Amino acid sequence: DQQVKQNSPSLSVQEGRISILNCDYTNSMFDYFLWYKKYPAEGPTFLISISSIKDKNEDGRFTVFLNKSAKHLSLHIVPSQPGDSAVYFCAATLNEAQKLVFGQGTRLTINP
Amino acid sequence: GAVVSQHPSRVICKSGTSVKIECRSLDFQATTMFWYRQFPKQSLMLMATSNEGSKATYEQGVEKDKFLINHASLTLSTLTVTSAHPEDSSFYICSASAPAFFRDGYTFGSGTRLTVV
Q: What's the CA gap between A42 and B38, in Å, rounded?
């Protein structure tokens, strides 16, 4: 039972444009969501997070939007840069210091 | 920031042998450490959660006698793959958690590529 889903395995975006990565979840009890970036043969690195009591969080070029009624969140990267090419995972957790449930990941490729 | 060191980064072992992977929190005390496994082009699957000084909690379907987890101190957790078989070949990643760092997200190690031949 995949509680966190990233339905797009890959996404290709032109440099300078906006990248939008999507994530859906089924468990309405999730109260904290995180996005991670991962390069091959490396561990994930934290990008940005959002609490379920908010609908938007912004950090530089990265913005995460949360739509609780739709159980959907998205990560916007603008402007996209070649160094953003990586696999992006969304993750959710039930409460602090509890285990993360990951989506399947989306491979983002930024084309020059 | 929080740093987690995972060692080794890559290991090749013969079928039937055991392999130990270490996960260390370098600049903070990790009350909880998590072990994940990732198959090619798939998600990170949580294997087990370990709290310092207590037995690990394994996820459904993970053999605790095969994947031995020890969390003897607040800065070190180990995963031992016992009697390894080729199907155990995978990318193993640890992460560490401490309440003070939660809002920055869990910190992950760099992963260990295990190949069983």
A: 11
Place of tokens 């070949």: B89
Q: Is B54 exposed, middle or buried (0-12, 13-18, 19+ CB in 10 A)?
A: exposed
Is A46–B106 a contact, with Cβ atoms under 8 angstroms apart? yes
pLDDT in tens, B40-91: 777 889 999 988 888 899 999 999 999 999 988 889 999 999 999 999 999 9
How many Cβ atoms from other residues are within 10 Å of residue B69's Cβ?
24
- Give the best residue of B108, B110, B112, B114 to mutate against chain A (max A CB count within 10 A): B108
- Phi-psi label, residue B104: left if phi above 0, alpha if psi -120 to 50, beta otherwise: alpha
Under a CB-based contact definition with an 8 Å cutoff, are residues A48 and A65 in contact?
Answer: no
> Phi and psi at residue B9, in whole multiples of 5°?
-85, -25
Give the Cα separation of A64 and A58 in Å (integer).
6
Chain B environment of A36 (Cβ under 8 Å): 105, 108
